[in-house]
Amino acid sequence: MKKYYIFGHNISYTLSPLIHNIIFEYHKIDASYQVCDTDSLKTILQILQATDTCGASITIPYKQSIIPYLDQVTDIAKHIGAVNTIIKKNNQLIGDNTDYIGISEPLTNINKKLKNALILGAGGAARSVCYALNTLKIPFIIYNRTTQTAEILAQEFNGDICNTIDNISADLIISTLPLSAQFEISHELMMNAEVFFDIVYKPYETPFLQQAQKYNLECIYGIDMLLSQAYVQSKLWLGKNPPSKYLRQKVFSTII
After folding, report:
1. C-alpha pair distances (Å), 92 with each of 24, 49, 66, 87, 208
2. What is the Cα–Cα distance from 23 to 29, expressed in whole angstroms?
3. Is the pLDDT of residue 53 over 90?
4. pTM over 0.90
5. What pLDDT score was predicted for residue 196?
6. pLDDT score of 134
7. pLDDT at residue 88 above 80?
8. CA–CA separation, 101 vs 210, rounded Å?
9. Over the stretch 163-206, which tens digit does the pLDDT of each residue have?
10. Ramachandran category for residue 184: left, alpha or beta (phi over 0 → left; psi -120 to 50 → alpha)
11. Residue 250 pLDDT more than 80?
12. Residue 130 CB neighbour total at 10 angstroms
């Protein structure tokens, strides 16, 4: 049996095994996708070298720290500065990034011309958001509690920063903040916004998106990002198109 993993730490919440095992079952592939929750990078590298390991997802806190140990890294992953996908080919470990597709695809599927964006947070997840907005040619401003972190990110991806969002106007507001942040959006910012996007996918309706719903704003859910990036991840591993409609129905019937 072929084995695939998601490597990370404190990731018991992940829905990735549900998604990828549905894909394996659909295609009648003798494979399993498992969670490896570990605080040891050494353990991850040992499992990746095992002959029955065929690929992996990488999540916090290893998306950057694993890069020096890979045989190859795609140009996109280099540009983003993070890897979320590992393809194993001829015993070579190839790092790629599909997270940005999880951002860009849901945004291209909405019928709105977005002129600018506000990104909340400047952590590792924000890197893929910045890259995706660059590819979509949507200018953005970053707001982060630590201004210096936002400055570094904005400079790298040609964005701007703000020290306060009191006087900011943005069509699109994307939160990369953890659920625990409990960030409150002002009435003024809500009145000018059109689309809210939260990359957190559990719970399905986050407190951040619930704020948007009160103003009847269009919402993009974290599960949309997760599924979009997983489709591409699966194709990189299997060379087959994932059953997107079938998969979405199965996943939603489980989580909602």
Report:
1. 23, 9, 14, 8, 41
2. 8
3. yes
4. yes
5. 96
6. 98
7. yes
8. 24
9. 988 888 999 999 999 888 888 888 888 888 999 999 999 999 99
10. beta
11. yes
12. 25
Question: Do 102 and 229 contact (CB within 8 A), yes or no?
Answer: yes
Residue type, 230: A
Mean pLDDT of 57-69: 96
Spatial distance between the Cα atoms of 58 and 97, rounded to a whole number of angstroms = 9
- For residues 123, 103, 239, 12, the Cα torsion angle rounded to the nearest 10 degrees is 50
Which residue's entry shows tokens 């999880």?
A: 102
Categorize the per-residue pLDDT at 255 as very low, low, confident or very high, splitting at 50, 70 and 90. Answer: confident
Rounded distance between C-alpha atoms, residue 139 and residue 146, angstroms: 21
CA atoms within 13 A on the CB side of 90: 2
Q: Which residues are identified as catalytic?
A: 63
HEC states along the chain?
CEEEEEEECCCCCCCHHHHHHHHHHHCCCCEEEEEEECCCHHHHHHHHHCCCEEEEEECCCCCCCCHHHCCEECHHHHHHCCCCEEEEECCEEEEECCHHHHHHHHHHCCCCCCCCEEEECCCHHHHHHHHHHHHHCCCEEEECCCHHHHHHHHHHCCCEEECCCCCCCCCEEEECCCHHHCCCCCHHHHHHCCEEEECCCCCCCCHHHHHHHCCCCEEECHHHHHHHHHHHHHHHHHCCCCCHHHHHHHHHHHHC
Confidence grade of residue 109 (pLDDT, cut at 50, 70, 90): very high
Cα 30 from Cα 3, distance rounded (Å)? 9
User: Is the pLDDT score of 50 beyond 80?
Assistant: yes
Quickly state the pLDDT bin for 85 (edges 50, 70, 90). very high
Residue with tokens 């997270």: 99
